[in-house]
Design a protein that fits this description.
Strand order of the largest sheet: 3-2-1-4-5
Number of domains: 1
Number of strands: 5
CATH topology: Nucleotidyltransferase, domain 5
CATH superfamily: Dinitrogenase iron-molybdenum cofactor biosynthesis domain
Helix content: 10-25%
CATH class: Alpha Beta
């Protein structure tokens, strides 16, 4: 399963970002192998629509589940429409939170 976590850093030691649409990086992790890819978020500093644009990025990368602290309603709608499972209220390092799946 491909997991996505919005992160403050570009590796598994980074913290889950409090901001989905404007996080610094998205960490995509294969739950079977624990191999990961860090993708710099191109929407971190855009004016408006960061949440929806970030949701579209996550969808395009094939994420099946998102572990996040918070996701706004517009981004949440886009993600749920794509069939992506979203779990919010998540805090800690990426390394810690991927163990819950």
């Amino acid at each position: 399963m491909k997991i996505c976590v919005p992160s403050t850093g570009k590796d598994l030691k980074g913290e889950v970002s409090s901001r989905f649409g404007r996080c610094n990086y998205f960490i995509f992790i294969d739950s079977d192998t624990l191999k990961y890819e860090a993708v710099k978020n191109p929407n971190a500093y855009v004016g408006g629509g960061a949440g929806v644009s970030s949701a579209q990025l996550v969808i395009s990368k094939g994420a099946e589940i998102i572990l996040a602290k918070n996701i706004g309603p517009k981004a949440m709608s886009v993600l749920q429409s794509a069939g992506i499972r979203v779990i919010v209220g998540i805090t800690g390092t990426i390394e810690e939170v991927i163990k819950i799946i």
